[in-house]
Amino acid sequence: MNESHFRDLMIQHCRPPPAKVHTEASLIKMGFPTHLLNGPLTPCLCHLEKASLEKITADGYFCPQCNSKYCELPVTCQVCGLTLVKAPHLARSYYHLFPLPAFTETLLERSICVGCQSIVTEKVYSCPKCTQHFCLDCDLYIHETLHNCPGCL
User: Fold this and answer.
1) Dihedral class, residue 54 (left if φ above 0, else alpha if ψ from -120 to 50, else beta)
2) Residue 12 has what pLDDT?
3) Which residues form a coiled coil (predicted)?
4) Dihedral angle sign, alpha carbons of residues 152, 91, 95, 116
């Protein structure tokens, strides 16, 4: 029907895989600091070494663990070692850490796209893991928006 309807249909096929029972966890402890605009007039720890009076401000991000002040995120706290990020930073970095592999281009006389169910008569793009076939539009949508292969899921 339209782009948003197509997106909703594709999302229905993208469910996260079930967690494996016997996997070793490799977690990174992160903190989500509070941003105060009218906090105490102090220098932030990232500019403390320079002892610059122009960086003494009332606003900043305060570490939830040790209450150290920083002017910009993401940063690793110099006092307690906690990685400080905002939620959007974490969400944007996930797909860069685990990118979807590029689909291989193959020439077939006729195939059906798994994503939109259309008949593809020229170039077909197939996932290297599940070998499902997709048209060019679905390949672009999967790599740029979904970041998950519907055939694998």
Assistant:
1) alpha
2) 77
3) none
4) positive
CA-based torsion, 48, 54, 55, 56: positive or negative:
positive
Q: Decide: 152 and 130 in contact? Cβ < 8 Å.
A: yes
| DSSP helix/strand/coil, 64 | coil
What type of residue sits at position 62?
A: F
Give the predicted TM-score (pTM) of the model.
0.47
Location of structure tokens 């009332």: 58
Closest CA to 148 of 106, 99, 113, 104: 99
Strand (E) or helix (H) holding 134: strand 133-134
Alpha-carbon span 34 to 51, nearest angstrom: 24
Angstrom distance (rounded) from CA 97 to CA 68: 28
Calpha distance 60→42 (Å, rounded): 9
How buried is 148 (Cβ within 10 angstroms: 0-12 exposed, 13-18 middle, 19+ buried)? Answer: buried
Interatomic CA distance for residues 68 and 80, integer angstroms: 9
- Summarised one tens digit per residue, pLDDT across range 16-65 is 666 666 667 677 788 999 888 887 788 888 777 665 556 678 888 999 99
